[in-house]
Specification:
The complex is a heterodimer of chains A (112) and B (111). With 112 residues, chain A is an all-beta fold. Chain A is 0% helix and 58% strand. Chain A has no helices and eleven strands. The chains are: A mainly beta (112), B mainly beta (111).
Amino acid sequence: DADVTQTPRNRITKTGKRIMLECSQTKGHDRMYWYRQDPGLGLRLIYYSFDVKDINKGEISDGYSVSRQAQAKFSLSLESAIPNQTALYFCATSDPPDNEQFFGPGTRLTVL
Amino acid sequence: GEDVEQSLFLSVREGDSSVINCTYTDSSSTYLYWYKQEPGAGLQLLTYIFSNMDMKQDQRLTVLLNKKDKHLSLRIADTQTGDSAIYFCAERGNQGGKLIFGQGTELSVKP
């Protein structure tokens, strides 16, 4: 079984809808991250959490919110989706000394 | 602010060496990474180098770090068609596990 899973894998939605992307991990890591990937822009950090009570904004948090429901679960919400949020979204986990981040398979989100 | 830059595309012939380059701006970077993304998949760590090292070799992969010029490179020897992927350079500063990624270099290996 995969260590970091994301649901859904693909989602098409309409402008203005609320969307939640979910991430679960079985690695027992405290630190979790949400990134979005756009062609030619690489990965940009949206939010990150270093433990269950810790939430931090990343580089591009506007229009997004997160919830860390448990050590193993970190959800990303788009309160009112807009077309420029169409992207590939990745969840990742790590633990100190943070030598590696482990990535999920990604969620492809299309906002029409 | 922190920034990591890569060229977007590289094309090589099978059997040749590939060299993917990266520049970064954060002089406090502690670790620098190379991740590989195959089509339709997430990112997988290829290798990383600590900032006090100049070179790291792992089988076909050689990482060179020029800290003075803030330049990182990844050399893949005897490049194979299975090496076709997007390669991301990333740097980690001194704020926990946060990574700053480059744009990714799409490597195309032609037979």
